[in-house]
Amino acid sequence: MSITTKDIARIANVSQSTVSRCLNNSPFASEKTKQRILKIAEEHGFQFNANARSLKVNKTYTIGLILPQSMVDHGFDVHSRAWQDTLIENLTQLQFDVIVSPSFGQSNIRKLIASQKVDGFIILQPELDIETMDYLEKSDIAYVFCKYLPDVCKNRDVDYVHADQIKGGYLAGEHLLKLGHKKILCISADVAGGEFKLRTEGCKGAFYDHNVPFNDKLLFFGDSTFTSGFQLIKKNVDLLKSITAIFAQNDLMALGVLSALRELHIKVPEDIAVVGYDNTELCTYFSPNLTSIHQPYKEIALLTCKRLIELLENKGDHVKQKLAIQPKLVVRESTGNMLP
């Protein structure tokens, strides 16, 4: 198996962004660090994409990766880290340096454009003000939205690559309904980005298609963290007697649910089945292993980078593309067998 920039970062005990800068001879990395990283890369047979430097219009070979504030607030959870690392990996293989910029106050994009430090952007930002969006469009710089589409872009023609969240919510609801569950507690999250709202919409669609009424009184809201999933269960113990399944709309909340149910001596899946969302590596760290909806973030990252390169090369007819990649259900122990 070939070594990746993530592997090099782990060996060198530096960030993946630092590895990217060193491998691309960025002036933002010290000479000493560059030499150490290059030595590790050479010793382990790291290979660049040989076609990357064929770009005609690229000047800085640097891409701005704009992250949401939530990634910083939550200390880069496993799911968020996977998205960031995969995007950096793809860009580094294409011989691009990456400036990772958490979006504090919306001005970072405008500053990076004005300073001419980047050739393009990949934007994982659920919210964007209209001034920044107007500035992006007028600047004629290449950019692709990934994962989130800010409200200001809903009626604009932009490039956007994402997972089909409605389909994911549908798959989760359908799986539980096919197992015979009808009294299903849904735990969503009231956070920016709109993904959780779409997952709820998809779940409701599965109920509708299976002629089962969706009970809005069984729709609760956490904040997407492990703690919120845990606390919602502990604060609603009496409600658990009336349900047979729980769909927590991300893995962290779902694992919090599993932990709370264990403390209450409620068996999963015998008493209550549980489905999560994101299919992070944490799903197999808990017992029982968590059934989850897999977001194909590696495919999305690859397609996002590919589309950005096309824009930088001025290929095609400049028609904007919106690509929705389909999620998949990954069945594990937490949902068990069909109800008797």
From TrEMBL:
Name under which the protein is recorded: HTH lacI-type domain-containing protein
Domain named HTH lacI-type: residues: 3-57
Family matches, as SMART domains: HTH_LACI (SM00354)
Species of provenance: Lucifera butyrica
Keyword entries, A-Z: DNA-binding, Transcription, Transcription regulation
Record has Protease as a keyword: no
GO molecular function: DNA-binding transcription factor activity; transcription cis-regulatory region binding
